[in-house]
């Protein structure tokens, strides 16, 4: 289903609007006009079953308070003007308390994710002499809802388990983020495979991207992080952390840790403002394959 309004971009726009209102000392010139337009647009994408972040949630209240669907943006603007800017600003401040708490919890979860991921990587470096690190970024060419993204990712992970690469995959890590470009939602994926059984990271990344296109019925696209010009940039800086990594080469291992840690600790502005449910995750990783013994390490 094609959307007239980009869900991801609108939620970011609403959040920015509220945050900007919190830091000004006087009413912005177009405050009520922008406020009413954002409310009307939000009414078109709002889903009662979704969980919205703290700042976005305060907009949910307005849908009931003002029966927005019954009024034009112009009429709604008139109703909003019945309260002075300072009163709206105070209301936004109360919503920010919940938002600040959510951000603290989000950062705490990121730290835990990094620790868990590093622990998994420690095990793999210890037990395997060669690791193939494959990176691919999954995105959308069209505007989609968070529900479609969640469904697509679930299908993608099930489909990957049926591919020829699944048996040699030691770790699969994914991080779902929200931005303003294209469909807005995008997912960073990293795979670590047994380097003694798999090579050709570019081809595997391409295969993963092609699988994503199939799963999304070609609404989705991808970026192959093993493109020559992309890898050369990191080679020049000595920070390449993808491709074949040999456990005995400490600089390769360190670069791999940095690449993988980015998934657990992404850009600050890329967190999800909406989820299909309170239990929906934006980060996940598979269980590593059972350890091999040191006696068999040379065969791994």
CATH architecture of the largest domain: 2-Layer Sandwich
List how many beta strands DSSP finds: 8
Determine the CATH superfamily of the largest domain. EIF_2_alpha
- Overall geometric form: elongated
Distance between the termini: 46 Å
What does this structure look like?
The protein is an alpha+beta fold and 300 residues long. It has 2 domains: 7-100, no CATH class; 128-287, EIF_2_alpha (Alpha-Beta Plaits), CATH 3.30.70.1130. It contains 9 helices and 8 strands. Strands 2, 3, 4, 5, 6 and 8 form a 6-stranded antiparallel sheet that branches. Mean pLDDT is 89; it is low at 288-300.
Question: How would you summarize what this structure contains?
Answer:
The chain is an alpha+beta fold.
Tag the structure with descriptive keywords.
50% helix; 2 domains; Alpha-Beta Plaits; six-stranded antiparallel beta sheet; two-stranded antiparallel sheet; 300 residues; elongated; alpha+beta; disordered C terminus
Task: Set down the secondary structure blueprint.
Blueprint: H1 7-22, H2 31-45, E1 51-52, H3 54-65, H4 73-80, H5 85-127, E2 130-140, H6 146-160, E3 169-178, E4 185-194, H7 201-215, E5 220-224, H8 228-237, E6 243-246, H9 250-264, E7 274-275, E8 283-285
Antiparallel strand pairs: 1-7, 2-4, 2-5, 2-6, 3-4, 3-8
Helix pairs in contact: 1-2, 1-5, 2-4, 3-5, 5-9, 6-7
């Amino acid at each position: 289903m094609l959307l007239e309004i980009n869900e991801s971009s609108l939620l970011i726009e609403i959040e920015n609007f509220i945050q900007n209102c919190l830091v000004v000392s006087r009413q912005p010139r177009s405050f009520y006009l922008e406020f009413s337009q954002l409310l009307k647009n939000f009414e078109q994408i709002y889903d009662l079953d979704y969980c919205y972040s703290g700042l976005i949630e305060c907009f949910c209240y307005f849908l009931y308070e003002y029966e927005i669907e019954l009024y034009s943006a112009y009429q709604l603007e008139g109703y909003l003007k019945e309260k002075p800017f300072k009163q709206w600003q105070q209301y936004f401040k109360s919503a920010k308390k919940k938002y600040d708490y959510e951000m603290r919890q989000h950062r705490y979860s990121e730290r835990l994710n990094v620790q868990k991921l590093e622990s998994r990587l420690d095990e793999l470096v210890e037990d395997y002499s060669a690791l193939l690190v494959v990176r691919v970024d999954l995105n959308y060419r069209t505007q989609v809802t968070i529900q479609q993204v969640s469904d697509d990712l679930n299908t993608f992970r099930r489909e990957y388990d049926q591919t020829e690469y699944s048996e040699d995959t030691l770790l699969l890590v994914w991080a779902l983020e929200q931005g303003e470009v294209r469909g807005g939602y995008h997912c960073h994926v990293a795979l670590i495979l047994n380097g003694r059984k798999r090579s050709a990271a570019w081809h595997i990344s391409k295969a993963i991207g092609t699988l994503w296109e199939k799963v999304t019925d070609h609404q989705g696209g991808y970026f192959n992080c093993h493109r020559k010009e992309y890898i050369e940039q990191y080679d020049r800086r000595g920070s390449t952390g993808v491709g074949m990594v040999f456990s005995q080469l400490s600089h390769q291992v360190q670069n791999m840790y940095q690449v993988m840690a980015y998934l657990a600790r992404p850009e600050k502005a890329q967190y999800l403002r909406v989820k299909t449910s309170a239990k929906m995750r934006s980060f996940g990783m598979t269980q590593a394959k059972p350890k091999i013994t040191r006696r068999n390490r040379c065969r791994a």
